[in-house]
Amino acid sequence: ESDTASEISFQFNKHKKTPSIGSHSSDMASVSSVSGSVLSVYSGDFGSVDAQGTVEFALDYDEKNREFQVHVSQCKDLAVVDEKKGRSDPYVKTYLLPDKARMGKRKTSVKKRTVNPIYNEVLRYKIEKMVLLIQKLNLSVWHNDPLGRNSFLGEIEVDLASWDWSNRKLNWYPLKPRSLSAVNGVDHRGVMNLSIKYVPPGSLGKMRPKNPPSGEVHIWVKDVKDLLQLRPSGVDSFVKCYVLPDTSKKSYQKTRIIKRDTNPVFNHTIVYDGFHTEDLKDACVELTVWDHEKLTNHFLGGIRLGLGTGLSYGISVDWMDSTQEEVAFWQEMMSAANEWIEGLLPLRSL
């Protein structure tokens, strides 16, 4: 099983967990986190220049090779990024939306010291035509900075469902500023309906072992609505669960796969034990939704439940990044022991 979003293990076993007991139990909380390989289309944008100029390109679909081709010809009158030196080092980047992680980005070579770059390059995607027709092409132009502080120069977005595929000629298109949704970080990936509960140590009853005493976190994944539709038939989705920072693979849990449904109902409960109350401020429950295919799984979105402090047991970590909604949900669970806390949380890129 492989995923298009790579996974990074954080080897941190300060608080070793033990398997829980029960029909819905899982092994202990130890986890691997979805890395920053699933990034925004606009990641790395540190520029503040206004979009201007035009780009010349053509689109084609090679039926024989089942390949989508973007013929990037040239750009004209791009914005100048380095005004002192009067230069820009532009390149063109493309994504297929809405799932930019699935097909990945393509980009041209960098042309140095010009606002009128000529590329004459073809960016290629191996993709079925039916799948392509429910995508949008995002084509953007960027200034390449040696330190990685790339500047956005303009973009165009093409709805491939309404594209005239008989038009294979090169045409000029004006570059536009980033869309409002992109600037505001809007990235709707669906909504997860779930409940969580914390059972403190010593409140489990006499039938449970008390040596060593520990608590439990219960996670009830009910359903997800409005998932990204990657194929005309829908998606075959499942949910993964980890508890960070522990990274033993024994903690990896997942639901069954719900096929051909963008509104899957899972009704799946997971229990992690070995929790002390003080662990809750340093732990993070990560739930991610994936589309299942034979060769690879595709990341659809996820949530991280924790305090979002950026720290775990005094160590700075990038996965302790819960949103305000996720933090509030986790805090409510911490303050209401032995009670199910219900929530409806938006999925996001992790």
What keyword list fits this structure?
350 residues, mainly beta, Immunoglobulin-like, 2 domains, 4-stranded antiparallel β-sheet, 4 helices, 7% helix, 38% strand, elongated, cell membrane
Structural write-up:
The protein has helices at residues 100-103, 129-132, 180-183, 324-335; strands at residues 7-9, 32-34, 54-62, 67-76, 90-97, 106-107, 118-126, 136-143, 151-159, 171-174, 191-199, 215-225, 237-244, 253-254, 265-275, 284-292, 297-305, 311-312, 315-316, 341-346. It has 2 domains: 40-182, Immunoglobulin-like; 190-347, Immunoglobulin-like (Sandwich), CATH 2.60.40. By secondary structure, the protein is mostly beta strands.
Task: Please outline the helices and strands.
Elements: E1 7-9, E2 32-34, E3 54-62, E4 67-76, E5 90-97, H1 100-103, E6 106-107, E7 118-126, H2 129-132, E8 136-143, E9 151-159, E10 171-174, H3 180-183, E11 191-199, E12 215-225, E13 237-244, E14 253-254, E15 265-275, E16 284-292, E17 297-305, E18 311-312, E19 315-316, H4 324-335, E20 341-346
